[in-house]
Specification:
By secondary structure, the chain is of the alpha/beta class. Helices cover 61% and strands 9% of the residues. The structure holds adenosine-5'-triphosphate. Residues 203-255 form a coiled coil.
Length: 934
């Protein structure tokens, strides 16, 4: 408290009262009293700042007054700091942070006062220090006196010592005090320095704030000036706009006034007009009533007329409907006529250019909707440059597999109706034959060619008809490679997948005039029930097909592939049998060897291919010319196709064209060939339908065959027994000779026999006879004779060994006489048999069980009871040919021969013939199947 008082200045006493009396109480004193605290010197500077909230209530006006009245000089340091704080707070709270001039003045004043007081305080401290030093000196002199006194008396000494001790204690206390005062002084000095630093910082801030404030003031003044200027300008503008608007308002008022007047006039005018219109409307209403009546009258008349016309139109519609029916009937009749006429259908398909082909100059100029096709050579000029052809249908390069098949589909239906159908693809190499027949791949159904689609369709139709007809389907696949017939498949491939075995032995062609189109009975037959079965079989077959790369086609087919589908349907109501067959033939392509650059094997293949195709051309030419001789025998291909080209089949040929200009000459010759084919007339197609009676007859014949076979076996056994007993070498060797001779003829004709046959058959027999089989020889002879259809059918239904064609001395092959002799029949018997067979087949509807007995009696009159004479007897055997009672001699001869030779020979013939029919390497099931289909 003492120090605080001293810090207040020289005029302040130690208890805080003023030196000259009572210190006038300033406003800060009142605040301090209100706060109930007396500032301590130890933390006075800090506390001053703590008290700012007290000073904050000090009104600013009082401070100014205080400064003006020099009351500030008398204010305490504490309150001065409060003033400074408040001013600074105000400055900080101020919106722009500026310090007004008068505030700065006050601050400076306050700071000056604080500075003065600080210096006074420092002086005070110095004085106090001096005073302390004087005191110390005074005490030390006293101590000296006291020491002297101590030396005088001991009592006094004691007292003096005590006094001295006390004085020493006081001295120590005083020194300590002094030290603490010194420390305080140092502290105060430091605080003073801090205060100075604070003051100078405040001064700097003050200066900066002042400068900012002045700058801001100037800026504000400038802005105010500008704003004032703009406001004045705006005011002027608004005033001028106001003038203009007032003018406009007056103008508008004038205008609306005039308009109002005009509208008034118009209203009067319209009123007059409306009155006139109302009058006119009345007139119109009157007129419309009259017109309405007129219209109603007209409408009534129109309705009457319409009724009348409707009646007429109905008549016309009926007529049109009839017309369509007639048209459909016409179409049907046309087809029937076509069928009857037997023309081969020819569809032409043009292959698109292949992706890798660089030059795309086409020879196809025009494709008509009705089968017209114009081809031309774009790089040649001349009158032969352009040619028109007409076929049943022409498919453009963009035609899909499905579109192509759609036009083929009706033929597939015919197969199930019991017709024989043949579809084959012809064209130069690489023109798309395999693409059309098989398709590029079997994976996608879209790519399927005619083969797969046909079989698929076949199964679907068969399925849809299963309630009335039960169908069985079987397939054969063969190829003609280098003029040799190979089988693609054996039963092993189909029934036992693990044992894949391709029977590629060469085959013989049987009669080409079989009712079921069975041209190659040796080829194994495979029963199929679903399209999947067919796909499996055909993929095996196709992998085995001879294919090679040529300059014209990377995968050129080097063989003619023949897929035959046999269909056998049994009518569940009548038990009638339908037999249809479908030949699907992908011919090898004709090629100019100079273009295909074929050498070695390829060249040989090409030569064979071209030769067989030219043989096909010859056959077509002969058929087109209606020649009596048709050279079917010139190639295996024509032999196989014989029943399709010259028989009663429905035939469709796909002519494949390569549009490339380089193939122009091949295209023209292909088209010429196709044109000739389309002109060929086949015999009327005929359904292979067997009535119940015919089938019964066949069954009886079959049972007869079995009986004969049994007898053969028995005779064979007896003969061997006899030979072993008698050792008759002569008879045996003779028999052996006959047997081997027969075998040679039935299996493979010896060159000598061929020569014989050639000379015997006819002058027009083929010079290029192949390695021929007896059976094909016979078939050719039959076909060329052109009149032995029924005989062949009989032979087909009977055992091969008893074929009447062989027994006929006139038409039989080179060993027919042998056969007759071996059978032990008289010359006349063979004629009779031939006649019987003709008659039997000519009365298919009227035959009955007696036919078999007639046949049996004719063959074995001694062992068989003569048939009862009946109506059928007359039908079967014309009166002129009734079996005459055998003469005694003849009878004896018959008996003799029948006992030994005929049966022996029959055995030989039968076994050899059977060998030629079934083939040695075919499996038993395939044999049975083939028999069933025959
Ligand atoms: N209509 C078509 N659309 C697309 N490509 C086709 C068409 N016809 C044929 N091709 C393609 O042309 C090429 C030859 O076709 P393909 O092998 O069927 O001819 P080819 O007449 O059978 O020949 P070759 O007689 O030499 O066997 C094949 O690559 C085939 O994919």
């Amino acid at each position: 408290m003492e120090e605080y008082a001293s810090a207040e200045g020289p005029n302040m006493t130690s208890n805080g009262s003023h030196e000259g009396g009572v210190r006038p109480r300033d406003i800060s004193d009142y605040y301090m009293e209100a706060a109930g605290s007396v500032p301590d010197t130890g933390n006075k500077f800090h506390d001053v700042f703590q008290l700012k909230h007290v000073s904050a209530d000090h009104p600013g006006a009082n401070i100014v007054e205080m400064v003006k009245s020099s009351g500030i000089d008398n204010a305490s340091t504490h309150s001065l700091f409060g003033v400074v704080n408040r001013i600074l707070d105000e400055c900080m709270d101020g919106k722009n942070g500026d310090i007004p001039n008068h505030t700065a003045f006050i601050l400076r004043k306050v700071l000056q006062i604080i500075e003065q007081r600080m210096s006074i305080q420092v002086d005070n401290f110095r004085n106090q220090k001096n005073f302390q030093r004087v005191r110390e000196e005074k005490f030390s002199s006293i101590i000296k006196v006291l020491e002297t006194l101590v030396k005088g008396t001991s009592e006094e000494n004691e007292i003096s010592v005590k006094t001295l001790g006390r004085i020493k204690g006081e001295k120590t206390t005083i020194e300590e005090k002094r030290k603490s005062e010194e420390l305080n002084i140092l502290k105060t000095i430091k605080e003073k320095d801090d205060a100075y630093a604070e003051v100078s910082r405040h001064n700097q801030e003050l200066e900066m704030t002042k400068a900012t404030y002045e700058k801001h003031c100037m800026q504000l003044e400038t802005e105010a000036r500008e704003t004032k200027f703009q406001l004045e300008k705006k005011l002027n503008e608004l005033e001028s706009e106001l003038d203009i608007s007032q003018n406009k308002v007056s103008e508008l008022e004038k205008f609306s006034e005039s308009k109002y007047r005009r509208w008034k006039k118009k209203e009067i005018k319209y009123q007059r007009f409306v009155n006139i219109q109302c009058g006119a409307l009345k007139d119109l209403r009157e007129a419309s009533r009259f017109m309405k009546n007129d219209i109603l009258e007209t409408r009534r008349r129109h309705a009457e007329e319409l009724n009348y016309l409707g009646g007429k139109l109905n008549g016309l519609v009926d007529a049109a409907r009839n017309y369509h029916a007639i048209l459909a009937e016409n179409r049907r009749l046309y087809n029937e006529i076509q069928d009857l006429k037997g023309n081969i259908r020819v569809y032409c398909r043009i292959r698109p250019f292949l992706p890798g082909q660089s030059r795309k100059l086409t020879t196809i100029e025009y494709i008509g909707e009705n089968g017209e096709l114009v081809v031309m050579n774009p790089i040649k000029n001349g009158k032969d440059n352009r040619r028109l052809f007409k076929f049943n249908k022409v498919f453009s390069p963009v035609a899909t597999q499905e579109e192509v098949f759609l036009d083929t589909q009706p033929l597939i239906r015919s197969v199930l109706d019991g017709y024989n159908v043949c579809i084959f693809a012809y064209g130069q190499t690489g023109s798309g034959k395999t693409y059309t027949m098989s398709g590029p791949s079997v994976v996608s159904q879209e790519d399927w060619g005619v083969n797969y689609r046909a079989l698929n369709d076949l199964f679907q139709i068969a399925q849809s008809r299963k309630s009335s007809i039960i169908y069985e389907v079987a397939v054969q696949m063969v190829e003609i490679y280098n003029e040799q017939l190979h089988v693609f498949l054996t039963v092993y491939t189909f029934y036992n997948n693990a044992c894949v075995f391709f029977d590629l032995h060469t085959l013989g062609i049987w009669s080409t005039a079989q009712p079921n189109g069975l041209a190659v009975p040796e080829a194994s037959m495979h029963s199929v029930n679903t399209t999947a079965d067919v796909l499996e079989l055909m993929s095996i077959g196709l992998t085995n097909r001879a294919v090679g790369a040529t300059a014209l086609n990377e995968r050129s087919s080097r063989s003619h592939s023949i897929l035959t589908v046999h269909v056998r349907g049994t009518d569940s109501e009548t038990n009638a049998i339908l037999r249809g067959s479908l030949h699907l033939i992908d011919l090898a392509g004709s090629e100019r060897v100079d273009r295909s650059e074929a050498t070695g094997d390829r060249l040989r293949e090409a030569q064979h291919i071209n030769k067989s195709l030219s043989a096909l051309g010859d056959v077509i030419f002969a058929l087109a010319q209606k020649n009596s001789h048709v050279p079917y025998r010139n190639s295996k291909l024509t032999q196989v196709l014989q029943s399709s080209l010259g028989g009663q089949a429905k035939t469709l040929m796909f002519v494949q064209l390569n549009p490339d200009v380089d193939s122009f000459s091949e295209t023209i010759s292909t088209l010429k060939f196709a044109e000739r084919v389309s002109g060929v007339e086949l015999g009327a197609s005929r359904s292979n339908k067997e009535g119940r009676e015919v089938r019964e007859l066949i069954e009886q014949v079959a049972s007869l065959k079995d009986t004969i076979a049994k007898k053969d076996g028995e005779i064979e056994r007896l003969l061997s027994l006899k030979h072993s007993k008698k050792g008759d070498r002569r008879v045996t060797s003779s028999l052996r000779y006959k047997s081997s001779s027969r075998r040679r003829h039935s299996i493979r004709t010896s060159p000598q026999a061929q020569r014989n046959s050639t000379s015997k058959i006819s002058a027009h027999s083929d010079k290029t006879a192949s390695d021929g089989y007896n059976c094909s020889e016979y078939s050719d002879r039959n076909s060329e004779a052109g009149s032995h259809q029924s005989v062949n059918e009989f032979r087909h239904q009977n055992d091969f060994s008893y074929s009447p064609s062989k027994l006929s001395s006139k038409d039989a092959g080179p060993n027919a006489d042998d056969d007759v002799e071996l059978l032990g029949l008289a010359d006349g018997d063979s004629d009779r048999l031939s006649d019987i067979s003709d008659s039997v087949l000519s009365m298919s509807t009227e035959t009955d069980a007696s036919i078999s007995s007639i046949v049996e009696y004719t063959l074995f009159p001694e062992t068989t009871k003569p048939p009862e004479e009946s109506e059928n007897w007359e039908k079967v055997i014309p009166p002129s040919k009734h079996p005459k009672p055998p003469q005694e001699k003849q009878m004896l001869q018959h008996q003799k021969t029948r006992t030994f030779q005929p049966t022996r020979s029959a055995t030989r013939i039968s076994s050899s013939a059977r060998k030629s029919v079934v083939g040695s390497s075919s499996s038993t099931s395939s044999k049975l199947l083939s028999k069933r289909w025959m």
